[in-house]
User: Fold this.
Amino acid sequence: MDKIKELISLMNANDLSEIEIQEDTLRIKVKKTNGGFQPAFLPSVPSGSLPAPVGSVQHPLLKKDNLKEITSPMVGTFYRAATPGAEPHVGVGDVLDPDTVVCVIEAMKIINEIKAEVTGKVVEVLVEDGMPVEFGQPLFRVQPTVSGG
Assistant:
C-alpha cells in the first residue's frame, strides 16, 4: 500500500497520468482518471517466462529493510557503462563510496553520470542496460556499510 501511495505522489509531482512498475513477480499500474486514481494489480507472469533481473542476488541474511536504493534523478535511458561494449561502471558485489559513478542516464542526448551517494556494497541491479527509467525509479540496491569499515 505504501508503494501505491509513493507512486501517486510521484505522479502528482511530475504531472503524470499513468505509471507502471514491476518488481520481481509483482506488477502495479496506476492510472489517473476523472474520478481519481485507480491502482491495478496485474496478474504476475510465471517466473520461467521472464528474464531474471540483471545481477540479481538474494542473500539469505540480507533483509530488504536494511538496503538503500539508488534511484534515478531524471527520466531517460539507463546505461551500465559509459560507452557500448565497455565494462559496466559497477556490478553486484562492488563496494561503493558516495562519489562512485554507478551508471549513466541519457536524457535529451546528454549523458549524465549518476553517483552512488551512499557507502556500501551493490547487492542488486534493478534495471537492464538500455531500458528507459523514470524519475525516482530504483536502479540499484545497496547494503550500506558502517562508517570506518
Summary: The CA atoms of residues 82 and 125 lie 16 Å apart. The longest helix spans residues 2-13. Helices lie at 2-13.
